[in-house]
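Methods — Computational structure assignment.
A single polypeptide chain was analysed. Its primary sequence is given first, followed by the predicted tertiary structure written as structure tokens.
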Amino acid sequence: MRFLDRQPLAKWLFPALGALVIGVASIRDHFEADLWWHLASGRWMWDHLRILRLDPFSYTVAGHAWHDHEWLFQVLIYPLYSTFQMHGVLLFKAGLLIVSALGFYRALPKTWAPSVKAAVLVAFFGFLRFRNMARADLISLTLFPWFVSFYLDLYQQRKPFELRDIRADKRFALHVFLMWVWVNSHGGFLALWGATGLAALAWMAQPSGKGRSLLRNPFVVLLASFGIVSLANPYGYGLLVSTLDWTYQLLTHNSGDFQEYLPTPYGGYEGFWIGMLLAWAIGLAVQWQRRKWDALGVLWLAYATWVGHSFIRNIPFSFFLAVPVVCDALARVGPAQAAPGAFKRLYDGMILAGLLILLGWSVPRMSWGVRENVVPKRCAEFIRGHLDHRRGYNDYNLGGYLIWSLYDRDNPVFIDGRMHSVEG
């Protein structure tokens, strides 16, 4: 394993292999309901060459205003499906998860060995199991860790921030553009706004040498830029108001409507609370040992606890914040010391072998179809053959596929997965 001593090789080999394992493991038969109305929405926009503004798919709120905050994802996913069927969708999902994994890898401490970070990466994604989410949530899961990584870099920089740094550092422009993509692809961007605001407060709590002026606070500048770019969408401020409204509904009295998400790989909220309590214990213990207050770590852990507890689908966002904070705290416990060469080669070799075994185990288990037992194909066929242009009642989870399969007919649905974003 002496070839792993070559730093450039290890620097790229381990994250690439870890991300590949995650991408390959995600390719499984699809069974999630929302993909189908995303496809129907994308098809409608390509057919009409304009953005959806009114609901064309249901009879309960037909013609009501619809601020489709996922329109960009839909116009991307439909051509992939129409050209490559589920192969295109699942490869797109795997590619996004690979990008997400690389962002999370980058957020881990730079002092850690690449092999250790790759092991943490695979364990983290394996715990959360993003296998069956071929839907717009993937955009949030892809972009969020990259913003976290960028924020940690900004927060830990030694020199004070100046406005001219925005022109010198291309990452500012890149992340503002990514926020535009996010705003037009999924409402999860609001989770980042909270993390950005807390980072701005943490920046102000640092020693005065970094400057407490608002214009010398990079997170205030980013937050203002995000507010401006959020208006650059086909619906103007209406999209932001609509997203804030349905997010509030989800986080309060309507959170119980999503019971289908409770049988999760992380055991409902039990796994979440175990993870968060462990994160708090490690974070506070390290701060007590170092006698040094880390405002960003405490604020982000508090925010992660609230976000994850408020709605189970937010648990990945919680851990995207909490895990890098805890790992950074662990990396700062003592002076960084390089492991002896023989020992480093040993654990590098063991982790490399583990990644190769996981990859070899995942490849033959890839599947490219749709789980027939959860997709109402027979129901759609019966409606097509016996219920011309009639209205009926359908289950919440069946609505999305009925919209897609009966797209070319006048058979609007009763309810589907868009119920929080269509007004009325």
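Note: Residues 254-267 have pLDDT under 50 and may be disordered.
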